[in-house]
Design a protein that fits this description.
Low-confidence stretches: none
Helix content: 25-40%
CATH class of the largest domain: Alpha Beta
Strand content: 15-25%
Number of helices: 10
Largest sheet: 7 strands, antiparallel
Number of strands: 13
CATH topology of the largest domain: D-amino Acid Aminotransferase, Chain A, domain 1
Order of helices and strands: HHHHEHEEEEHEEEEEEHEEHHH
CATH architecture of the largest domain: 2-Layer Sandwich
Strand order of the largest sheet: 11-10-9-8-7-12-13
Mean pLDDT: 93
């Protein structure tokens, strides 16, 4: 056990206890966490700062408001129903559009209005909320994901997770849906995580269910050397997330819409550490560098430039594809 711990320590792997003590406890006051736990507050803060998010069509806060659900769902390109205080992708229903008296779910099945009312009632009851407390349902724009990920994705919307420390983006990955994850990009549901070079935005290595992989399990296409469009814009969005929330350690989840470009999907005050497996490197050296870096007088653009300098200090430039 001690030998394993020492080996991980030498490899620069950051553990969950150290993350909790040195990052979450020290940099994320509880009073600020509510700003990202409630997705409506996140959306409001982001939009005020010029950070694009999926359009919010409406909110259902109580069963008495259920009569407006059908109108809120009336969009030819579909929409998304999600709990405002949910986590890990639980409770999210993606509707692709109308389908013979109902709506087509992302898995191809038909959902009737009564089915969706039942689901919204479950959201209101707190079934998917972080603390099991009563919640409310958001209905928002359905992202039409950029086809750059078509060869390495299956049945859903990929997203990009960028972890930010003291306003400095320092490690990133793209999360890809799979058949096992039922079209969701969440890693704990069986999605694939692929490390990203922070400077270039190109994909590197992959992992699924804690095991490394170099191909997507459904498409069998190689995961490496895919360039993420608008990469610098995404880094800037992640850096600005620190400015609008005050959280010193956070994960910014960004989606790439085919027509609208990058959109901030949500923020996470407790981003996990599987990103190390996806990148096949321990992130402690990068973390230590970000903790002591001089950010005095730097705006978001300056912190992105600093992030690239720090990253390249520890991670060599990838060979040409």
């Amino acid at each position: 056990m001690i030998r394993t711990w020492l080996a991980l320590r030498r490899a620069g792997v950051l553990g969950i206890n150290e993350r909790n003590l040195r990052l979450i406890n020290d940099f994320n006051p509880r009073k600020l966490m509510r700003l990202v736990d409630d997705k409506t507050q996140t959306k409001s803060l982001a939009n005020a700062a010029g950070i694009q998010t999926p359009e919010l069509y409406g909110i259902i806060r109580a069963p008495s408001e259920m009569r407006k659900l059908e109108k809120l769902l009336d969009h030819p390109d579909g929409c998304v129903i999600k709990p405002a205080n949910g986590s890990q992708g639980n409770g999210i229903q993606v509707l692709l559009g109308p389908m013979r008296g109902g709506w087509r779910r992302s898995n191809g099945q038909r959902a009737l209005l009564e089915d969706l009312k039942f689901h919204v009632n479950n959201i209101l009851s707190g079934m998917y909320s972080l603390a099991g407390l009563p919640d409310f349902a958001m209905i928002e724009y359905r992202v039409k994901f950029d086809d750059v990920f078509d060869p390495i994705s299956f049945g859903g919307v990929p997203d990009i997770r960028i972890i930010v420390l003291r306003g400095i983006p320092f490690v990133a990955m793209v999360r890809l849906p799979t058949a096992e994850s039922d079209g969701k990009a969440n890693l704990h549901k069986g999605g694939v995580g692929v490390g990203l070079d922070l400077v270039t935005g190109r994909t590197k290595h992959g992992m699924q269910n804690g095991k490394i992989t170099d191909i997507h399990p459904d498409t069998a296409n190689p995961l490496a050397n895919v360039s993420v469009p608008h990469w610098d814009d995404m880094l800037l969005m992640a850096a600005k997330a620190y400015d609008v929330t005050g959280l010193g350690y956070l994960g910014a989840d960004i989606v790439l819409d085919k027509g609208k470009g990058p959109m901030l999907l949500e923020l996470n005050a407790r981003p996990g550490l599987a990103i190390q497996v996806a990148n096949r490197m321990g992130i402690r050296p990068l973390m230590e560098a970000a903790l002591v870096a001089d950010t005095e007088g730097l705006d978001a653009e300056g912190r992105v430039a600093l992030a690239k300098t720090l990253y390249r200090r520890f991670v060599p430039e990838p060979a040409p594809a």
